[in-house]
Amino acid sequence: MLRSLTSKRSLQSFLHHHHHHHRHLVGPTLFNPRPLSSSPGPPSSESELRKYIGYTLLLLGCSAATYYSFPFPENAIHKKAQLFRYAPLPEDLHTVSNWSGTHEVQTRTFLQPESIEELERIVKDANDKKQKIRPVGSGLSPNGIGLTRSGMVNLALMDKVLSVDKEKKRVTVQAGIRVQQLVDAIKEYGITLQNFASIREQQIGGIVQVGAHGTGARLPPIDEQVISMKLVTPAKGTIEISKEKDPELFYLARCGLGGLGVVAEVTLQCVDRQELVEHTFLSNLKDIKKNHKKFLSENKHVKYLHIPYTDAVVVVTCNPISSSRGPPNHKPKYTTEEALQHVQDLYRESLKKYRVADSGSPNEPEIDELSFTELRDKLLAMDPLNKEHVIKVNKAEAEFWRKSEGYRVGWSDEILGFDCGGHQWVSETCFPAGTLSKPSMKDLEYIEEVMQLIEKESVPAPAPIEQRWTACSKSRMSPAYSSEDDDIFSWVGIIMYLPTMDARQRRQITEEFLHYRHMTQAQLWDHYSAFEHWAKIEVPKDKEELAALQARLKKKFPVDAYNQARKVLDPNHILSNNIIEKLFPSSEAV
């Protein structure tokens, strides 16, 4: 690969060097042998003609040598048509990207051990060689917090349930097991996880380490379900920590961002498996304010979906089925088809307006076969940064939710999920919202300010702005950390979808989103003591902005204690990547 790129650069240098002396045609191997001189006409001598013919033959030879020296694999024959544009990737080069498609790296070191013994050997060998092996899970973090081109270790093959204590409702698992795998495996014991994030594909080690959360003002983030962990560390080998065994390190490492050790095994406190009733209805901010305290205190799970440029707020509550009343006997007013009708009509209208031709692909689904989130992606793809177009899509979404009001019954691991849509940029902040008995109402004030900012600055902000709540966490690196048991926290996520694979358009959306995020940061974060979710924080490129972020993090989190633990457990920083190093620079680096 390197040789082919070097050859390519040499050829380009050759062409550039002779550009001032020769005119060449569009084809890469056809040259006009007439020199660019002040006196037009035929070459002055036969020797000059031979010289230029020689240059042409030399280029032909270089082209052929490059082509045959670096053959393409059989599955890439179509790339042979353009000689110098493509070069084959080495077979040992792994391309790893996050789910949102916003971060991608290529690495030659991507290790997947099948046992803790193999993992221990990998970590020890990497530490001896000072070779980075950043722990990476399912790659779902929007900011790619687990990625680095220097090398990664992934525990997808360490996905076993090791033990289940039915009486204590505890389960010990290998950290590579996915959430859905785990809940499926422990169903037969009548237990499940206390809470869930929007999706189920995270590895347990990853979802714990970044401080992920579900919703419910009485329920803490998911790291609080961890009662003990086994870490494989570069300097101290394998250590087991818990509330009883090295509690100081336990509460620091439980939400440790993969920087203190590779989480190999986790013991989780589970709860009884329950059927829940989900109630979805449309409200508005005025009515929400009247009922907010009641919604938080009386519902086990509650979230709001705010729709910019409308007064619509979708309220989703989930509660155990009443033992006395049973599930609600409620027939929805509208069918799914009727709920989608308004969105489908807007899509057909937009196809005509933007003159989007039917692709004619046999694999392209009919409009009637598209889900709501698929329709929204296709609508936004037509004009994602046109505010008026986005407003139409948001209003159609509000109408969809109005016609989707009703009840749904299912097990908690089925009900507590959310279709987030396609590729997207997201920034989610966490901030204190008072206590359950006395909410501060700062959470609704925050939303009001976000909505005002969107309208004032004409941000093409799509829906929804999702708002959730959790109880506090005792993990010191959690954004929801508090020493006060009654404290509650609100989590608010702003988004912009990336509904197209066109690189130019994705870049424009990215720039607009970063501006949107920057405005919320400047206006709201300090005032509300808001801090971004670890899996969604983006490292600033500007040095002054980075320094300001580092100082801000240091006020909220025990950065010195975290760095000291890194120094003891991972002195060579083999588990770190650019995000960790930038956010938590060591005193030596500073």
How does this structure look, described?
The protein is globular. It has 590 residues and is of the alpha+beta class. It has 16 helices and 22 strands. The longest helix has 26 residues, at 503-528. Residues 1-44 and 66-87 have low confidence and may be disordered. A hairpin with a 5-residue loop joins β16 and β17. The protein has helices at residues 2-18, 46-69, 116-129, 179-186, 204-209, 247-253, 285-298, 336-353, 372-382, 387-402, 412-415, 442-456, 503-528, 543-556, 559-569, 578-583, and strands at 22-24, 31-35, 94-97, 104-107, 110-111, 134-135, 152-153, 161-165, 170-174, 191-192, 226-233, 237-242, 262-269, 271-272, 275-284, 301-306, 312-320, 406-411, 424-435, 465-471, 487-497, 531-532.
Descriptive labels:
FAD-binding PCMH-type domain-containing protein, eight-stranded antiparallel β-sheet, alpha+beta, five-stranded antiparallel β-sheet, FAD_lactone_oxidase-like, 590 residues, disordered N terminus
